[in-house]
Design brief:
Layout: E1 2-7, E2 19-22, E3 26-28, H1 34-40, E4 50-52, H2 58-61, H3 64-72, E5 78-82, H4 87-98, H5 102-109, E6 111-115, E7 119-122, E8 125-134, E9 137-147, E10 150-154, H6 162-170, E11 173-177, H7 190-199, E12 204-208, H8 212-221, E13 226-227, E14 233-236
Parallel strand pairs: 3-4, 4-5, 5-6, 10-11, 11-12, 12-13
Antiparallel strand pairs: 1-2, 1-14, 2-3, 7-8, 8-9, 9-10
Bound molecules: zinc ion (ZN) (2 copies).
Amino acid sequence: MKVQVIGTGSMWTKCNSASYLIDNDIMIDFPNGACKYLYRNNINPSSIDYILLTHFHGDHYFDIPFYILNKSKSDNKNINIFCSKEGRGKINKIGNLAFPNSFKDASRETNIKYEFNNNFKIKDYEISKLLVDHGRMKPAYGYIFKDNDKYIGFTGDTSLCSNVEYMASKCNYLFCDCMFVKGTSKHMGIDNLEYLSSKYSSCIFVVSHLEDETREILNKKNIKNIIVPDDYYVLEV
Ligand SMILES: [Zn+2]
Ligand SMILES: [Zn+2]
């Protein structure tokens, strides 16, 4: 599996918003600006066939209307969106706001499938969706991919909760929220990552959704099993 960290920053930084590209056609989250992030990396958004959404904050799904429009103009019209069940309504709402006429046409012209199950397969990956704790935003999910004998996790936005510990105990690599210096009821912080990385020492943690100060401190700490990536960082797992 190839994982590219498309975005590593929180909303309030110059970095792209947190999102990941797997094997050139699977995106985890599709934030504000995602189409531009992909173009800047010489990827046409229409080459993405699968989008897994963690939750419905704008910095995780607001570019989907542009993606659907782009797909409708491309030869590859397959769109597979994995999310919680209110996703279809939310995406149609922002799509109709963004393009009152052409979004309806684009939705008709493309082959959009929604999948709400907690366990599913994409190509050879077995994927499970797990509830995490992102304060008042409910539901919020993380995902674990099983790739042969390896497990690769993505926490999405979350505070430290039992399913994050489960992911850390199970995964070889965990791509995770570490927005703040100190964790809150909505996002993890460096204190949470120090705890997780020492308790689950065989897991490699790749942090994202970073504030600038958090990035600076984490870089100085240089913790053995924590990677602090820049936008577009690639990891072959
Ligand atoms: Zn959020
Ligand atoms: Zn967020």
